[in-house]
Amino acid sequence: MSQYRTFNAADAVEYAQQFGGVDDPSALVSAEEIGDGNLNLVFKIFDNQGRSRVVVKQALPYVRCVGESWPLTLDRARLEAQTLIEHYKHCPQHTVNVTHYDAELAVMVMEDLSSHRIWRSELVKGAYYPQAGRQVGEYLAQTLFHTSDFFLHPHKKKAEVARFINPEMCEITEDLFFNDPFIDHERNKYPAALESLVVSLRSDDALKIAVAGLKHRFFADAEALLHGDVHSGSIFVADGSLKVIDAEFGYFGPIGFDVGSAIGNLLINYCCLPGLLAPREAAEGRERRLSDVQDICNQFASRFLELAKEKTRDVALAYPGYAESFLRKVWRDTLGYCGTELIRRTVGMSHVADFKQIEDETMRTECIRSCITLGRTLILAADHVADVDALIARIRQAG
């Protein structure tokens, strides 16, 4: 049995030579650590021609930006690998291919995506991938339907819920999404000029009751195997292609959480573009973000309903009209979880490049204000926004 140790570049090369699945393992000669997150080491493995061939990813036993005072379970590497493997079965065109994993070393080997770019970085630059929204919607429909009660036998579903229990990583989500931003917490960080706005979140009874309901459903509604952290930084894009990565938060939870997280990050970019681009380009980019949101929601809903009509196995769930009724519940959840994503990325500790790369401090503060305000609005209005067209109209009206 192997024993855990933190990899360096030489370790990653040796591991890739053994488990990378390339025809000539000896051709793998160097590695570069490219991880930019807080939870993992990520190594690109290069051959003797300088080409990146595979990726080796290892989970760290703590949050990198905090250190050993915030320990993390290494079992999340197993959960991430198994979530991606399960999602790949149902949507290989939009899920990174995990070719090997070692639960004890907390290491996995994945396909190289050097031909792709991180979607968040592209959005910050103003680049547009017109197919990306539909592709994300397809990924969400395929993975969430095929791991839900609509498709799985009840015995299989219950066994899968047990297999993907992920309490430590879920606790991080529960704190960062539903607790920290709505209390005075040391992890929160936001511009001092927004103090009164942030304080108002803590005393808004209607908001806190709605957030409590969202957290309770996150606890209780084991609807499908979620990615658990679908944001533009966990999506790689290229012309005509899109791949989802980084599923260490995978567990069975409410479907609207994944959908809401995905569109929430696009709305973060929508709020930030006036600080990132010149006025004309920013206006064009904001319209494209709204188009992306529409594409995700429409593709997800239409494909989920098609799959439900074709493949639902449970006689009660197959009754005409039930899938549509279920998706109305998912939509309300989607809006609420989208709102919590907007607030946790601005008030809480998980800030993103969309804000960080706004150079003008005053503009950055106003973009953050817009994001917080939109997040609050979506949480409170979730029961009153009928569909994605109504959502887009409300966002445009808010300016």
Automatic annotation (TrEMBL):
Catalytic activity: 5-(methylsulfanyl)-D-ribose + ATP = 5-(methylsulfanyl)-alpha-D-ribose 1-phosphate + ADP + H(+)
Enzyme class: transferase
Molecular function terms, GO-annotated: kinase activity
Pathway it works in: Amino-acid biosynthesis; L-methionine biosynthesis via salvage pathway; S-methyl-5-thio-alpha-D-ribose 1-phosphate from S-methyl-5'-thioadenosine (hydrolase route): step 2/2
EC number(s) recorded for this UniProt protein: 2.7.1.100
Positions bound to substrate: D229, R344
Superkingdom as given in the UniProt entry: Bacteria
Sorted UniProt keywords: Amino-acid biosynthesis, ATP-binding, Kinase, Methionine biosynthesis, Nucleotide-binding, Transferase
SUPFAM superfamilies reported in the protein's UniProt record: Protein kinase-like (PK-like)
The keyword Endoplasmic reticulum appears for this protein: no
Residues at which ATP binds: N40, K57, E111, D112, L113, D246, A247, E248
Limits of the Aminoglycoside phosphotransferase domain: 32-263
Subunit record text: Homodimer.
Family indicated by similarity: Belongs to the methylthioribose kinase family.
Role played: Catalyzes the phosphorylation of methylthioribose into methylthioribose-1-phosphate.
Name of the protein in its database record: Methylthioribose kinase
Higher taxonomy: Bacteria, Pseudomonadati, Pseudomonadota, Gammaproteobacteria, Enterobacterales
